[in-house]
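Handout, section B. The chain below has 260 residues.
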Amino acid sequence: MEGRTDEKRRMKILCLHGFRTSGSFLEKQISKWEPSIFHHHFDMEFPDGRYPAGGKSDIEGIFPPPYFEWFQFEKDFTVYTNLEECISYLCEYMTSKGPFDGLLGFSQGATLSALLLGYQAQGKVLKDHPPIKLFVSISGSKFRDPSICEIAYKDPIKVRSVHFIGAKDWLRLPSEDLAASFHNPLIIRHPQGHTVPRLDEDAVEKLRGWTKEILSNDRDNGGAKIENGNLHKAACKILVEQSGDPMVKTEAGVAETTQA
């Protein structure tokens, strides 16, 4: 019958790509993972960044353009532009196209996702969006600006999270620091660099157990219901001062993720 509101829906994950790549490229990167971990259980969306790439992309000649970035930065990585506009854009995207149950991100996308989670926990953004339940961080990091840190990472973020940390990643230590900002995080280490890694059997089993528990909790809580119409579009205006962060370095090693 049309108009039913009690129909169970699949959980939904918003996936944010790395600097000067694209949603399609992140989708290709994730496709190397065993489908039974995420794709069989979740609906995953891979939008493009808010702005066209303002310079050369590391994946030119590897994956077709266009390429995008979520916000811009200066060469010393201490000044950001369009960060506030990007956050407002993503808040509107999530409230109008959601609700989303989780966030997944690589590098710039992971760092941005963690910021949204921290701000939501502190009541700064996504006030009319249900609390995010899960987070997958691949080579993510924290913003370093004190005006951001004292809000976003003020308290341990109580979102179920898994953090991929590469032994050869130039963001290894910042990724460790980000994981420490979450309550009871699952950390999966791999021997590769700044990339979406291939998963060995141990990693696959850990991830399967992690997603199985999340799905089980969702069922036990009655599951998510399809709502009639769109969610109310809430204003997501926040004041974010320009900040510094090491994550916006050339994303070396991304090429190795293109192999099937």
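Note. Residues 1-7, 224-260 have pLDDT under 50 and may be disordered. Compare this with the example in section A.
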